[in-house]
């Protein structure tokens, strides 16, 4: 594949490689970042390879980040994985590198970098990293740890192979990764586990979700509610899937208060396209899984009305 050949040529040309991912990471962000780092460390032991990005919150069972200085970026190659737009890259230091490569499976609505490999057909960026290895097996080495991380990324972004982005190729890649001797059962348990406070917040979400007659839903998590359950925004992704388990719900938004008074918006759908909504509100993402921002409760109301309209249109009303 021509683009991956260009990427591996760039990797060969640099002695120092800094790998970033997106802020507030999920398993695919860390899986693709860490999986690529493990593959490159095994394949090019003479190179300096770092994973960069600050706190990983409750995903420390996957990977921890390296401590790096600004000076370390001098003459370095920077690779960003699973990050749709530059403002979401984990750490401003990425700007200090010599050359920037973007590897991502989100729609390329906000291009950045000197070289990009985008595959919206892929279930996850972790799947893409496995393909990168597969295309260049004569030069790259897979490790047990890389396989564990990539498998975690695929499981995370496919909802355990439940989401529409799961293809026969996704399942083939997962099967190939399972040939490596990591504890997949333990990993699946770790991905599924939630804390007691998140379990209690999930109960609140179930009891307080607002649903219209067509299956458009919303949950508002005010600062007061976050404080009550002792939860911060970075922990709330664990409850994104809760509304989706309710049979009649077709699309939903979870609105999470931010310290400055705005709201982070997490949008999900079982069919109606919602990334068009996200793009109108300082966001973007996949057709059925996107993120946006609301400046105030008035914009929260507007976004929910747009979710309602999308569901109504999908249902033919």
Automatic annotation (TrEMBL):
<dbReference type="InterPro" id="IPR038763">
    <property type="entry name" value="DHH_sf"/>
</dbReference>
<dbReference type="InterPro" id="IPR001667">
    <property type="entry name" value="DDH_dom"/>
</dbReference>
<feature type="domain" description="DDH">
    <location>
        <begin position="16"/>
        <end position="154"/>
    </location>
</feature>
<protein>
    <submittedName>
        <fullName>3'-to-5' oligoribonuclease A, Bacillus type</fullName>
    </submittedName>
</protein>
<dbReference type="Pfam" id="PF02272">
    <property type="entry name" value="DHHA1"/>
</dbReference>
<dbReference type="InterPro" id="IPR003156">
    <property type="entry name" value="DHHA1_dom"/>
</dbReference>
<feature type="domain" description="DHHA1">
    <location>
        <begin position="235"/>
        <end position="312"/>
    </location>
</feature>
<dbReference type="Pfam" id="PF01368">
    <property type="entry name" value="DHH"/>
</dbReference>
<dbReference type="InterPro" id="IPR051319">
    <property type="entry name" value="Oligoribo/pAp-PDE_c-di-AMP_PDE"/>
</dbReference>
<dbReference type="GO" id="GO:0003676">
    <property type="term" value="F:nucleic acid binding"/>
</dbReference>
